[in-house]
Amino acid sequence: VRRPHEDYELTAKARELFPRAYEPVLRKVVDALAERLPRAAARDVLISAARRFLHERLGQLRGRTPRWRLAEIMGGLNGAGLGIEVEDEPGSIVIRSCSCPVASITAAHPELCSLLAEVLGEVLRAGVRETCERGDSPRCRFRVEAEDAKRTGRP
């Protein structure tokens, strides 16, 4: 088995064909949190939800290094069809997906990407910075900081 020579991605029109009934509801929930709660309180609720999602989905991670924990996360989340890939770059590790599963929400609330980076950093026990690609074809992208990537080892 080998990787394909070409990478393909869905257009915005094609993405509309996939079921996303949860997205408008989730968008309204995030909108309501932002409107009704002070910024810090809304942030705490969203961080708590992200933590719960990761802990319920992944359980207890046993890896000692960020790289090992990332391998465990990949095993736990790739079954969800998120299309997550990990790329080694000089001095860092980049986590990216072929699209953003909640693009309409992050378009209105881009701070959600930073909150996810924070929770991912907690799980990896490493510095993680959000570098998502926005525009016509939004993609999730997170970079494990250089000093943390150096001590990651290999699974």
Can you tell me about this structure?
The chain is of the alpha+beta class and 155 residues long. Helix content is 49%, strand content 12%. It has seven helices and four strands; from the N terminus they run H-H-H-H-E-E-H-H-E-E-H. It has helices spanning 12-15, 22-36, 39-58, 66-77, 103-108, 111-124, 146-150; strands spanning 84-89, 92-97, 128-130, 141-144. The protein has a four-stranded antiparallel beta sheet with strand order 1-2-4-3. The mean pLDDT is 80.
Q: What's the short version?
A:
The chain is an alpha+beta fold and 155 residues long. It is built from 7 helices and 4 strands.
Write the layout of secondary structure elements.
Blueprint: H1 12-15, H2 22-36, H3 39-58, H4 66-77, E1 84-89, E2 92-97, H5 103-108, H6 111-124, E3 128-130, E4 141-144, H7 146-150
Antiparallel strand pairs: 1-2, 2-4, 3-4
Helix pairs in contact: 2-3, 3-6
Main beta sheet: 4 strands, antiparallel
The percent range for strand residues is 5-15%
Tally of strands: 4
Query: What does the radius of gyration come to?
Result: 16 Å
Strand order of the largest sheet: 1-2-4-3
| Overall spatial form | globular
Helix-strand makeup class: alpha+beta
User: What's the order of the H and E elements?
Assistant: HHHHEEHHEEH
Task: Please name the defining characteristics of this protein.
155 residues; alpha+beta; 7 helices; 49% helix; globular
